[in-house]
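Next up, a chain.

===
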Amino acid sequence: MRIRLRLLSVAGAALALLMTSGAVAAALDANGLVAAADAIRFPTEAFQIQVKVTTAGRSGPEVHEYQVLQKGHENSVVRTLSPASEKGQVMLLKGADLWVFMPQVSQPVRLPLSQRLTGQVANGDLARANFAGDYNATLVKEEVIDGKPCAQLELTAARKGVTYQRVLYWVETATRRPVKVEFYTVSKRLMKSGVYSDFKDMGGVLRPSRLTLTDALRKGEQSVLEYTGLKKREIPDKVFSKEFLRKLQD
């Protein structure tokens, strides 16, 4: 009887270890998919890129243009190029802190990543566009989208102050390309959805040159982000500092 109990105990421990190992492996695989899709969307090296945002709404189309400089996941500068009324505004992301510098305003203003920048685009959509650094991923299910097997991943915030509290993310399993995404509020209400498309060679990798964001709360409102002019480049650390950006506005 004692031998049988010992065998059951050993078998139970082995089963628990196997389940734990499987859960860890699944978590690593899900997070690995997110990191791989991030590397397809944007380079892991320092780079600059132009982003044109065209928003369709009840008042007619609006166009904004930005230049983004990014180094790693913790440092970025977003310069507003147009419209003329907003030209000269600069956002600085340093770690988890986001600041905006505006012409004729002496002190920078701190902003949340979740605040709307224009249309369906939040500050964090441009200033901190990676998912792997801000979220923990779990595999929800596998499904076929447009004939391509995809993994549906649930992303939950890994820290405070992220752009979105919950994200559903679809990644093509064979290529690791991002396919579509849904953004949710804290109460799990769908805010907007996005589709990645028009893959082009940018920096030696086929990347989505277009992200279409559709508002889930206001029917007919949509923003299209078009990415062009991607260049990998050396960017000095001093660029990502309040002192440097103040000098640009002098």
